[in-house]
Input
Amino acid sequence: MAQFADDKPPFNSLANMAKWASDLGYKAVQIPTWDARLIDLEKAASSQTYCDELKGTLADHGLEVSELSTHLQGQLVAVHPAYEELFKGFAPKGMNAKQRNLWAIDQVKMAGTASKNLGLNVHASFSGALVWPYFYAWPQRPAGLVEKGFAELAKRWLPLLNHFDENGVDVCYEVHPGEDIHDGITFEMFYEATGKHNRVKMLYDPSHFVLQQLDYLTYIDHYHDFIRMFHVKDAEFNPTGKSGVYGGYQDWRERPGRFRSIGDGQVDFQSIFSKLTQYGYDGWAVLEWECCIKSPEQGAREGADYINQFIIEATEKTFDDFADAGISDEEFKKLLGID
Output
């Protein structure tokens, strides 16, 4: 909902957006907890009545809450000094870096409690980043710098992960450039640094892997046990003789790698849905619109139908059951030549 929220109707309240989304064919909404037009996070963490009323508002339009999100607050859990000025808009005005960090930690904690109150068992967030400025190996990184950074990142998140654990909620980190967790290797580093905390999970968004030129299908083979959330977002990568993965500091329209409205990019969603179904993924498929060409309204109109065509009803029957010979254990022995 974050990309659509606005001061103008129907994007100015949860009730209005619920009707709009329902009319387009959506079944649930992922709520950004930093947007007071959509949710009062403090109330959601302290009042079961408020959470029941919020769910009722959505139910009036045939919707559910898929998940809550703390992407902006999660970003502020760990901020390298080089980015403090750029991220200060993620928190209330007038705070210094320390105050923003404490505010963010409190916000993420409240989101864990609110998730429980809403009957949710997964939550979306960013990890924040301390090591990201050093992602390219020049100047040469001193030995131990990355490990120290991930140890500190885990230290900051462990109390939050324990709080989510107490509330029965997984933290699904969106694997995303700009975060210290930006690919499979860095996810593993964080997971190890937390002592393999049982609440460390993953929000899978293939668009970020297209821009990194990472194999987003094999990624599912490696990490399907951790994937508890899924952003359906498209992207394309069209390198030129002048620019590639790093984009040449160009804006989104001009860079080789750019996000596109669903169906307009290069992501093979049919194969993704097949793999996720194969591995038993039972979460939501959440449309995330980010496109520098198509309007959000058109992207949303097209999105529900596009996703629906890929939803797979998992079979409960083996296709060759008709040929089952009903072999007994004794007959197995004969077939195997066992005396």
